[in-house]
Specification:
- This protein is of the alpha/beta class.
- The protein has one domain: Rossmann fold (3-Layer(aba) Sandwich), CATH 3.40.50.150.
- It has ten helices and ten strands.
- The strands form two sheets. The chain has an eight-stranded mixed β-sheet, with helices on both faces. A two-stranded antiparallel ribbon has the order 2-3.
- Strand 6, helix 8 and strand 7 form a beta-alpha-beta unit.
- Helix 1 packs across helix 4 and helix 8 runs parallel beside helix 9.
- The radius of gyration is 18 Å and the shape is globular.
- The chain starts with 11 loop residues before the first helix and ends with a strand.
- Bound molecules: S-adenosylmethionine.
- The site of S-adenosylmethionine has 20 residues, from loops.
Length: 285
């Protein structure tokens, strides 16, 4: 487990994932009943972009200037992106940054916590001891928030089905290991079996290699409504050309909202000719 999200925090992948996450949570909040957010790979909760650029053993080129940095001063974001952007700006300001560029970037647990209503609940899983410790420091003891220092795939069994009968499960692994797709496919399959009505969001990288179509085929076979939102920022990139989020059981209108997000981000986060965002139904409703 060498992965440290701090080096990637606020990059284009975080922007896509977090803008969609905020939208997803807001959509579920159209109903009064509370729900649980299960974050299987939570990270540390927030990131100091300046400290990350200093690195552990020397300076590292930061990724955020090509992500949140590109959006920071813009006033033309559509409503679906503006909500996320306002949350990130407010968080940065509240942490004490008065500079013109972002410094403190919230991770998925903090964004979910910012959006959560009193009736919503958070289950945060983080396996890396240092990251988990930072997560505990960030949140302390909160009644409607639990932190688990354990393998996040265990959350599927431990948290589903939830008492509220409503859940969003975010699966955001580092994809360091070759077997990650298998873990993801198994987790989503098991999640759908245990709690068919849940919403499952899976982040994945788009590398030079083909996307793992085994996962997509399994979703088709499960016949559960699902869509993919993919953002390609640099089609010619040797390593990561973009990333995507699959949403199983997307809430009403998320397809249109995701299209607005992807179309805007495709224009703003481009790094090479042919950059684009695309939303497709894998299994339509
Ligand atoms: C991509 S980062 C998460 C970022 C976070 N979800 C966000 O959006 O702000 C992946 C995290 O998963 C953690 N991790 C790796 N393997 C794990 C596992 N099996 N279970 C739980 N956490 C794991 C890593 O330590 C890392 O913090």
């Amino acid at each position: 487990m060498n992965y440290r999200h701090a080096y990637h925090a606020g990059n284009f992948a975080d922007v896509l994932k977090h803008a969609l996450l905020v939208r997803l949570l807001r959509s579920l909040q159209r109903k009064e009943t509370g729900f649980v957010v299960v974050d299987t790979h939570a990270g540390r909760g927030f990131y100091d972009l300046r400290a990350a650029a200093e690195g552990d053993s020397g300076p590292r080129s930061p990724e955020w200037p090509y992500g949140i940095g590109r959006l920071w001063d813009r006033a033309d974001a559509p409503e679906e992106v503006r909500d996320y952007l306002d949350l990130v700006r407010a968080f940065d300001r509240d942490k004490g940054n008065a500079a013109a560029t972002p410094r403190f970037y919230p991770g998925s647990p903090r964004l979910a916590r910012m959006v959560a209503r009193p009736q919503d609940r958070l289950e945060l899983w983080e396996k890396h001891p240092d990251e988990c410790e930072a997560l505990r420091r960030e949140f302390g003891a909160e009644r409607r928030l639990s932190i688990h220092g354990a393998d996040g795939y265990g959350a599927i069994k431990a948290c589903l089905p939830p008492a509220e009968r409503r859940a969003v499960v975010l699966i955001d692994p580092p994809f360091e290991d070759k077997g990650e797709w298998e873990h993801v496919a198994r987790a989503v399959g098991e999640g759908i079996r245990r709690f068919p009505g849940g919403t499952y969001a899976v982040w994945y990288p788009l590398t030079g290699r083909a996307r793992d179509d085994g996962f997509i085929d399994a979703l088709k076979a499960a016949r559960t409504p699902s869509l993919s939102a993919e953002l390609i920022v640099d089609p010619g990139a040797a390593r990561m050309k973009g990333c995507g989020v699959v949403v199983v059981n997307p809430p009403w209108r998320l397809d249109d909202e995701a299209r607005a997000i992807l179309s805007y981000l495709g224009n703003v986060l481009y790094r090479g000719a042919g950059a684009q965002g695309d939303v497709r139904w894998i299994v339509s409703k």
